[in-house]
Every structure is written in structure tokens, then in C-alpha cells.
Design brief:
Layout (H helix, E strand, L loop, with lengths): L2 H19 L5 H6 L2 H14 L9 H19 L3 H5 L3 H25 L7 H13 L2 H11 L3 H25 L3 H8 L4 H11 L11 H23 L10 H16 L12 H18 L4 H5 L2 H24 L3 H12 L5 H8 L4 H32 L4
Helix pairs in contact: 1-14, 3-9, 3-14, 4-8, 4-12, 4-13, 4-14, 6-7, 6-16, 6-17, 6-19, 7-8, 7-9, 7-19, 8-13, 8-19, 9-16, 12-13, 13-19, 17-18, 17-19, 18-19
Length: about 400
């Protein structure tokens, strides 16, 4: 299959998923399993069955050009002031959850890495990006540290099988939140105070997308990402984590967040993040295609390690919530903001408390902001463990 045909196939597939998601008969199904999950998982199944290639020049081309531009557009409209208004309890739960993922990665690797491929540290590093931010962060970390395709499939499988199962567990626990809050001795006013602060933030009116606006966004996204990548190529490489690509993605993230504090952020009203999401979905489809679900059958300890990792993350959140009397609602949403991202976190938030989708979304945005930085930190720790153990 030639690269142009492969690209057309993935683009058509993404369009088909969203077309089906708008059908009345399927709305409940796509509410339960959002489109991005289908876009991620079905190519992984197709790749495992040999229907689409697991390796293609198209994949690094998209992740090296489309992904950085998508990151710029996704982060450009980040309202850092609104994120700051979340308040200490919500921010704490999100950051504690991210810390649990960053520290849990080398812990799980140290426990099970001896029975896994030598490059497993890179798979754990890539997955750390997803479990502290989202798909965009996962691909950014994967490209930065050069995760081999042979083990990246395991990261995709762990993300889907463990990560999505964790989402279902959090949704299930919503019915028991009152009992858990009594055990936590939770101060329920923390949630109401966070929602009150968010209502102080003026809602920006979305503007219709115009051709000039579209071209400005496209030009800005590729211009900023191209500049960041060029500057990254000029910075020194340090060990196996801080490569030229790593510097490039760090600079892309930093430049985009810097622009979010300028008048350029008004492009969000014209649809910057929507355009960025559309570009990202194309990359996510190829990301799934690089997954090999069959690798889990060869190395089932990847899944065991994943559950130990998630368990460590959850334990850290539970201990801090108990000490700070934080409601289980914020614990669950903070966890999902890390392991699920902007698509599923509002769903989890609403399952616990109707009308709290904006709070869940902003907590997930905080995860997006720190995801690449946190993922690269976890990757460095995992690489250190692998070297100390003599696996690499």
C-alpha cells in the first residue's frame, strides 16, 4: 500500500467514525466510547490482523510535521488564568496524579522489566506521556525518545486495555462517592468553591471559521513548530532522552504556551483547538496502527506492570485526599485528567456531579500542559532504571 493511499485511507476512516458518531441510533454508544477511542483502537486491531502496515514512512512524516503543528493549535488557546482559578484542591489532585504516574513508571519497570524486552523502558516512557496528558503528549514523548516500533505496540495496548479499564472503574465508583467521602472526611465545599471560581471566568463567543482565519492558523502552527524544531536541532543532546527531537517538542510546547498569554490566543475563538484536534486525530489513527496487541500475548507482564503502575498512582491520590480531606469527586477527575485526557475527563466529572464538565475539562487541560514535560521526566527515570539493571 503506497503512502498516499494509506493517508487517504486513514483520513477517510477518521471521517467515517465522526459521521457514525452523529447518527441518532449510535449516540449512546459513542457517548460511552468516544470517537477518539475508536480512532485509536480499531487501527491497532487492523494492524495486529495484518490489514494495515505496522511500519510506513507515512507515520514518522505525520508525527514529525503534523503533530508539532497540532500541539501549537491545541495549546494556543490554553487559558492559563482559568486553570489557575481551579483552586488548590483541584490543581493538587491533578499534579499528585501526574507525580504518581511519573514515579510509578520506573517502579513498575524495576519490578517487571527483567521479564520484558530491553527497550521496554521506552514504551513506559511513551505511555507516561499519555497518562499525564493525552494522545498528543504520548506521541511527542515517543518521537522524542525514539521508542522502537517493536515495543511501542505494547504501550498502545497498555493504554487501551489498562487505561480505558481504569476509566470504567472510575465511572463505576461514582455511585459510591458518598461512602468514600465519609471515609475521607471530605470537605465538600471544595468542589462548590472551584465551580464558583470558574463562573467568574467570562465565556468567549466562538466565531465562524473563515478562510483567512484558517490560513492564519495553519501558517502560524507550522511556522512556530518549524522554528521550534530548527532551534531544537541546534541544541546539544544529553543522554538518550534529551535528543534534538526532545528539545524540539519541549520548545513547541513552551512557545505555544507563551503565545497563549498574548493576543494571538484569540485565534481560539476562531477554532484553533478544533483544527488542532482534527490534525491530531489523523496522527492518532496512525499511532494506533503502530500498536501490536499480539505483543501482550507474548509479554503479558506488560499488563500486570500497567495495573501496578495505575495502582501506585491511585494510592498516592487516595493518601493525599485523606490528608487534605479532598472529595472523591476531585480525586477521580484528577486521575482521569491524567490517564484519560480532555475527551473523557468531562464525562467522568458529569458522572459524579452534573454540570461539572467545565471543571473536568480545565483539569484535563492542566494535564495537557504538563504532559510532555512529565512524560519526558518519567522516560528519563525509566532509562536510568534500565541502565542500572543492566538491561541496556
Amino acid at each position: 500500500m503506497t503512502e498516499p493511499l494509506l493517508f487517504c485511507g486513514f483520513a477517510s476512516f477518521v471521517g467515517l467514525v465522526f459521521a457514525l458518531a452523529q447518527q441518532k441510533q449510535l449516540i449512546k454508544l459513542f457517548d460511552l466510547v468516544p470517537p477518539v477511542i475508536w480512532i485509536y483502537a480499531l487501527p491497532a486491531v487492523a494492524s495486529t490482523l495484518g490489514w494495515v502496515p505496522r511500519e510506513s514512512p507515512l507515520y514518522p512524516l505525520l508525527s514529525g510535521t503534523i503533530l508539532p503543528a497540532a500541539l501549537v493549535l491545541l495549546l494556543l488557546g490554553t487559558d492559563l488564568r482559568a486553570v489557575a482559578r481551579l483552586g488548590l484542591p483541584a490543581v493538587t489532585m491533578t499534579l499528585v496524579g501526574a507525580t504518581g504516574i511519573v514515579l510509578g513508571a520506573p517502579l513498575a519497570l524495576a519490578l517487571f522489566g527483567g521479564w520484558l524486552p530491553a527497550e521496554a523502558w521506552a514504551a513506559f516512557g511513551a505511555l507516561s506521556g499519555s497518562w499525564t496528558g493525552g494522545f498528543a503528549n504520548m506521541i511527542a514523548v515517543k518521537e522524542s525518545i525514539g521508542t522502537p516500533e517493536r515495543v511501542f505496540g505494547a504501550a498502545v495496548a497498555m493504554d487501551f486495555l489498562v487505561g480505558y479499564s481504569w476509566t470504567l472503574i472510575l465511572l463505576f465508583l461514582a455511585r459510591y462517592q458518598d461512602r468514600i467521602d465519609r471515609w475521607l472526611k471530605a470537605d465538600l465545599r471544595q468542589v462548590d468553591q472551584a465551580m464558583a471560581r470558574l463562573r467568574e471566568n467570562p465565556v468567549q463567543t466562538a466565531l465562524p471559521l473563515t478562510l483567512p482565519g484558517l490560513m492564519v492558523m495553519v501558517g502560524l502552527a507550522f511556522g512556530v513548530s518549524g522554528l521550534a524544531i530548527a532551534l531544537g536541532n541546534g541544541l546539544p543532546e544529553v543522554s538518550g532522552v534529551l535528543s534534538h527531537k526532545t528539545w524540539g517538542f519541549i520548545l513547541v510546547t513552551t512557545f505555544a504556551l507563551g503565545l497563549s498569554l498574548t493576543p494571538v490566543a484569540r485565534l481560539e475563538q476562531e477554532g484553533a483547538s478544533r483544527l488542532g484536534s482534527g490534525l491530531l486525530y489523523l496522527v492518532v489513527a496512525t499511532l494506533g496502527a503502530q500498536g501490536d496487541l499480539g505483543l501482550i500475548g507474548t509479554y503479558p507482564l506488560f499488563l500486570v506492570a500497567g495495573w501496578v503502575w495505575i495502582g501506585f498512582h491511585a494510592l498516592g491520590l487516595l493518601l493525599v485526599a485523606r490528608l487534605t480531606r479532598t472529595p472523591f469527586f476531585l480525586l477521580a477527575v484528577g486521575s482521569q485528567a491524567n490517564t484519560g485526557g480532555v475527551v473523557t475527563t468531562p464525562i467522568v466529572a458529569v458522572a459524579y456531579r452534573p454540570g461539572t464538565a467545565p471543571l473536568g475539562l480545565l483539569m484535563a487541560v492542566l494535564g495537557n500542559v504538563i504532559g510532555t514535560y512529565a512524560g519526558l521526566t518519567a522516560a528519563g527515570l525509566c532509562q536510568g532504571v534500565a541502565r542500572a539493571m543492566g538491561w541496556i
